[in-house]
Amino acid sequence: MVAMKTLTEKILTDTIRLRPANSHKGTFGRVCLVGGNYQFGGAIIMATEASVYSGAGLNTTLTDVVNFGPLHARLPEAMVTEFTNQKALTQLVSAADTVVVGPGLGVESDSLTVLKGVFDAIRPSQTLLIDGSAITMIAENDLPLPTAHLIFTPHQMEWQRLSGIPINNQENEANEKVREELDAIVVLKSHRTRIYTSEGSFMNPTGTPAQATGGMGDTLAGMIGGFTAQFTHRENAVLAAVYAHSDIADNLADHQYVVLPTQIMHQLPTYMHDHQSKR
Ligand SMILES: NC(=O)C1=CN([C@@H]2O[C@H](COP(=O)(O)OP(=O)(O)OC[C@H]3O[C@@H](n4cnc5c(N)ncnc54)[C@H](OP(=O)(O)O)[C@@H]3O)[C@@H](O)[C@H]2O)[C@@H](O)CC1
Ligand SMILES: Nc1ncnc2c1ncn2[C@@H]1O[C@H](COP(=O)(O)OP(=O)(O)O)[C@@H](O)[C@H]1O
Ligand SMILES: [Mg+2]
């Protein structure tokens, strides 16, 4: 077992590239976000908004129709389609660089149908981020995983459900073994989030209890979606998103008791400007 490395600010300039002058929206990636049932619309709205604010060129959200108006009122930049429309889902998933599935998806039978539809449509060259309800449904239904570049973003209870490792025993060696079986990147979220990849394991030193509020993980999922769609080194894109998400929160927590997920994403354009590669 190789020692866990601690992330530093360097991961930002290693990852966030200077935007090429000769570019257009297609240069910066397509993200398809799937989630948000009638109850949890906020989760997919936050994930989508985080992806847009992190600079992904084109963002399409597949969600329950009740979320169309609320999402568009906040974010006219995103496109929307009903997640029960299997034909549209297959088309939009196929066209994406990164697909984010799970924020607010729920665990009812319609949610499971949507998740299976995503798994059927995804191709091996694509990045698939699996979060929230999608992780819970995989664990509860023992679903086979599709072939793709998989990223899981569980909190500790979701990781217990997926890996079978109880929260108190989630040590590096056990976590790395399950990561290898899943053949995925695993972002195990907690006060000090750990990231397991085939290129090593990393501890994120940023983060504050001011972040302990609903929607914080949905926001991270959207950021990782946006980063992986535009930055070519997948592992670094994940690491940089995790670092930035909590570093922005730390900065806000210097003078705030609680930090809202939407405040973090709204800082992203400035933060990324200040931490981009100089070349
Ligand atoms: N605005 C919206 O639309 C929002 C929608 N959301 C969406 O809701 C869906 C369900 O996701 P979920 O995370 O809320 O519920 P679930 O998977 O049952 O986990 C909670 C259970 O795990 C336990 N637990 C133990 N350790 C833990 C840890 N480190 N971190 C967290 N939990 C921990 C915890 O223990 P307790 O808090 O009781 O001590 C509790 O028993 C999902 O799709 C998500 O995207 C939310 O994002 C909120 C905003
Ligand atoms: N006490 C804490 N210190 C640092 N980070 C925290 C703390 N509590 C929560 N977080 C962060 O907030 C996020 C919570 O994710 P998650 O539980 O999936 O939230 P949600 O599903 O409500 O969006 C993770 O990124 C986690 O690291
Ligand atoms: Mg979550």
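qc> The longest helix spans residues 234-253.
qc> done
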